[in-house]
């Protein structure tokens, strides 16, 4: 059974849900689409790592990308710049002060990632505006709070309060698991950015942040709660949630005038083989593909095994009745790139190359729930020195 909660007004959030039992798991696919509305004016905190590992070309690239972002951000939007090493500095609450601060910025010291991120959160206090935080790091959190679970929990609490975290891992030394988890719990996306790519990555993200249609969305099913950063007009997001004992889906869209709450009774599981069941099955396969891309091979033998897994999953996706969807075709291209990378590692294993492949796959997987963002993202071969 497929349930579509058709908006009563064109200004309402579009909701579409499908339920099915796949692989013995009772799953609910939730698709949300923002309407076309007058754009809201966003606020942004740009939190930059200026620890010693950023010295040289990386810091110069980060400064240039940040300055370009200041120029491109909506004129009425407010941008705060925060820089952190073992200490935290607020570089400016207006654009002129931020520009002057960035031009003089130097790198040194250790990495108090949590303190920098927390300061950015505190600067985004206007609850009537969409609020985004971009966290850039090239290293490991080694000062102050560093525990992954604690940082993820704080990112989730910030999203619950309406401030959403996007993370950019810059170079080869950042904590992949930490930045990916903070973005996932914080309602945003995680990106892997090699040297030379930062300005382009920020520009791509900015395209979705310039004129949001809402202040964010909360989705709750049983004990599970997911927070989603503000949508661009007509942007879609797709979730796959375990049903367990839940009977009702709650979706809360935050707007400047107050929240709109939708409560949808769950349909029964769709019959196996039906179109609704196929939608859920395909979503489960996409999620499986995302998890596979995040894997890192620790040896040539493991790389060969992962190449075989990618080949087998690709065949299942190609044979699926709904396998011509844009997201599926994008994932198939990524799996092909992943398979070739793993075959090269199987022939000649190099740990640095395996690490890069895992970074690329983790960032790609973070976009699978964001169809429009995924359409702009290309899986890249990171096995070349």
How does this model look, in words?
- The chain has a six-stranded mixed sheet, with helices on both faces. A four-stranded antiparallel sheet has the order 1-2-3-12, with helices on one face.
- α4 packs parallel to α5 and α7 runs parallel beside α9.
- The protein has three domains: 90 residues, Sandwich (Immunoglobulin-like); 167 residues, 3-Layer(aba) Sandwich (Rossmann fold); 102 residues.
- Helices cover 40% and strands 25% of the residues.
- With 385 residues, it is α/β, with parallel strands linked by helices.
- It has eleven helices and 14 strands.
- The radius of gyration is 21 Å and the shape is globular.
Total of domains: 3
Low-confidence parts, pLDDT < 50 over ≥5 residues? 1-7
CATH T-level fold name of the largest domain: Rossmann fold
The separation of the N and C termini measures 50 Å
Overall 3D shape? globular
Summarize the structure.
The protein is of the alpha/beta class and 385 residues long. The chain has eleven helices and 14 strands. Helix 7 (275-293) packs parallel to helix 9, helix 7 (275-293) packs antiparallel against helix 10 and helix 9 packs antiparallel against helix 10 (351-365).
Task: Considering the chains and any ligands shown, give keywords for the structure.
globular, 40% helix, 3 domains, Rossmann fold, 385 residues, Immunoglobulin-like
